[in-house]
């Protein structure tokens, strides 16, 4: 294939938004689509090379994989080695153990599966996983493990009708992606079956599925439209955009248009072929490898969002490391005369895999190399696993189970089930405390709780795969069935107002302001609806939480002997909950009781993060299983109050 400088420039167009997005630069909320552009470029270039060699009768699987090893592995291994050293210095035991596991997954090209299996509502924030970005490399390598074999089979038994054989696979993968985004978003994001179509878009271009555009104007418009689709995706997509699915079509088709029209001397092709963009494109692989661990380790060290100067310095380090990697690792070792050319490439890959797997296994079996830290640091750090995992079967039940009453029951044995504990993950995290309180009061409750779903009627959480609206509707049917006399509503209200997009029938646009209005209406309507049915409503306010993962921050402060205070002030807590408090005030007289644990936790002006020397949260806001016992008596008083003016249980 003739080298195309415009494709080098397109690589730059894909990597720059990724860097800016991961550095949390405002205005590029859809920068993650750069990875999808990479997939299309990769599918086009690799398929073109494979098809050309197959047509000429000189394709070799061994030769193909040997080239992939020389292209991908050296720079990757250097990054893994340096990251491993940095991780051994910086990461606390729990995080280092996870890093060790991800190191093994990255070497085996299964990190997409590894991070998918870790994903979920309680998954730790991405900025604490130095090797998370290797998921996309794993998708590519899995694709190229099977795709050449498929093309060979079609050449032999399908008379070389590659387009006819590849197109249905691409459409099926796209259909799976659309379905997955709606039903299994984590799997749709990470796994090959729902991502393969993006690479196959490039493959279909390389196989001649799309005829060349005729006329200069058509090519000019096609190239500009392609750039426009990519740019529009970068500027308008965000955390709440369902992805990949149909939304991934925009950047992928944009990349395809740029590639397809780039053989003509268009304005887009000339722009992309300019020196600076070409150079960024040449170092783009190394830049992708280095940018993420640098940003993660910088954030881990500060235990706080990076400032503008810190972000600029981190990005500068990324570029320097990328240039060095490209100049002294990528370029020399990808050449045919390199020390790992030919059969030596497979020996190099095998030895490297064994060594890194051994290092990863050592990190795992030593509990994240706990001996680096004092027992106190290890104990504080370990609180990140101190939660109610045994109660997870009671949590996030399907709506049909709720409506039918197929729910866990807590409280006093033999008592009638007249209470409903309705909430989100906070209801799950404190379920054992409510169970103890119900037992002491001689009553029983059914539990209806779902991750990330506010216990409110008539509210839809936008861009969230959980069945929040259906779950709330099922709760309504459960209540209408009779028997429920008291409802305790337990949720992290602050998180819904601050971090989600919510809508109801009166919502006209999806933004923060409309979210607050919809939640306020939902809260007022839900309390009023229940109270009008003669049901006593008991409302628990949000816990204060902390700025970052509490066990990590408190353990780091001990380990590094430096002040790291993750606590909010009481003033900040009230500011973050201003809209919620206003809504509660409007239904104050309809509440049977209200739980205000924040009054105790924030009594001294700063909201506590620890008790008895250990964190009270296992992440940034969910209470630990064993170190939140101080809430037992307030919860009991909260449930016992049933009439008269609002009773606030501290």
TrEMBL record:
Superkingdom of origin: Bacteria
Keywords of this entry: Acyltransferase, Membrane, Transferase, Transmembrane, Transmembrane helix
Any GO MF annotation of the entry: acyltransferase activity
Keyword Transport: no
Xref: InterPro entries: Acyl_transf_3_dom, Acyltransferase_3, SGNH
Species lineage: Bacteria, Pseudomonadati, Pseudomonadota, Alphaproteobacteria, Rhodospirillales
Transmembrane spans: 31-51, 72-94, 135-155, 162-182, 188-210, 217-235, 241-259, 271-291, 303-324, 345-365
Species per Swiss-Prot/TrEMBL record: Azospirillum oleiclasticum
One of the Pfam families matching this protein, by short name: SGNH
Location of the SGNH domain: 394-625
Protein name: Acyltransferase
Domain Acyltransferase: 6-325
